[in-house]
């Protein structure tokens, strides 16, 4: 385990960030949670402008960079990298990315890949972890269709993973002082979106038909080719059905 030190978490109020902050606090750490807003337990700074970053990073040994703009993450990462380099003792940066960012031509993925490249060229000690989609993301794919008469399932597969497991792996990388890109991680099962939609429908007690959809374009082809999946033994343990059972209070699932 890494020696006790000051930790900064960007994106600490997001889905993954909350799990990571909870994991750190559960073992007695008091991470600084970066936010543009003021509030209890928050360290105020702006990744977009760089305002407040020098103070936020002062004395920090480890930065978990989880913040995302949902547009171009490079824009909100440059100031962080500059401020981290300017510290008397630059921190170890741990960054979370997504499996398939090199092969899947989504603009958001290209932004993630650009951040990876910027981190690699920053001169900072770093670890990069790529993970598959989180269980809540897969759930939202279907919950967003609540007004449709059918539940649409694109014709490719996914390997969802528990948020807590990704958070735990990131903490483990920091503890070990891992440098460079770590092995990609994914959930314990690869299922078609059709299978995942059926599981979601069952958990919600729905009756809508589930329709497979063949999506056109390069992005869909990359997903069908499995570039969003992690080959080899799985890292994650919680299955999507188990997540749904916990999420919706299903007993005996």
Main attributes of the structure:
alpha/beta, 18% strand, Rossmann fold, NmrA-like domain-containing protein, 253 residues, NmrA-like
Please provide a written account of the structure:
The protein has 253 residues and is α/β, with parallel strands linked by helices. It has one domain (6-248): Rossmann fold, CATH 3.40.50. Helix content is 36%, strand content 18%. The chain has helices at residues 15-26, 53-57, 78-85, 107-120, 135-143, 163-176, 193-204, 218-224, 240-248; strands at residues 6-10, 32-35, 42-44, 60-65, 92-98, 126-131, 151-154, 157-158, 180-181, 191-192, 210-213. It has a seven-stranded parallel beta sheet, with helices on both faces. The protein has a two-stranded parallel ribbon with strand order 7-11. Helix 1 links the parallel strand 1 and strand 2. Helix 1 (15-26) crosses helix 6 (163-176). It is globular. It starts with 5 loop residues before the first strand and ends in a 5-residue tail after the last helix.
């Amino acid at each position: 385990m890494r020696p006790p030190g000051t930790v900064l978490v960007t994106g600490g109020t997001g889905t993954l960030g909350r799990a990571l902050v909870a994991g750190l606090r559960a073992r007695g750490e008091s991470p600084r949670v970066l936010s543009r807003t003021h509030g209890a337990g928050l360290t105020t700074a702006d990744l977009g402008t760089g305002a407040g970053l020098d103070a936020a990073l002062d004395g920090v040994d480890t930065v978990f960079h989880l913040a995302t703009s949902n547009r171009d993450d490079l824009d909100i990462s440059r100031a962080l990298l500059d401020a981290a380099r300017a510290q008397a003792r630059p921190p170890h940066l741990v960054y979370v990315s997504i499996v398939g960012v090199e092969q899947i031509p989504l603009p958001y993925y290209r932004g993630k890949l650009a951040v990876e490249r910027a981190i690699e060229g920053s001169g900072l000690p770093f670890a990069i972890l790529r993970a598959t989609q989180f269980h809540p993301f897969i759930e939202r794919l279907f919950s967003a269709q609540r007004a449709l008469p059918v539940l649409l399932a694109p014709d490719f597969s996914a390997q969802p993973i528990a948020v807590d497991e990704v958070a735990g792996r990131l903490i483990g990388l920091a503890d070990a002082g891992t440098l460079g890109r770590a092995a990609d991680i994914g959930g314990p099962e690869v299922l078609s979106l059709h299978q995942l939609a059926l599981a979601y429908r069952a958990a919600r007690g729905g009756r809508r038909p589930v329709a497979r959809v063949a999506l056109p374009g390069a992005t869909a082809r990359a997903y069908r080719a499995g570039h969003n999946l992690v080959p080899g033994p799985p890292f994650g343990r919680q299955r999507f059905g188990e997540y749904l059972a916990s999420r919706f209070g299903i007993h005996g699932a």
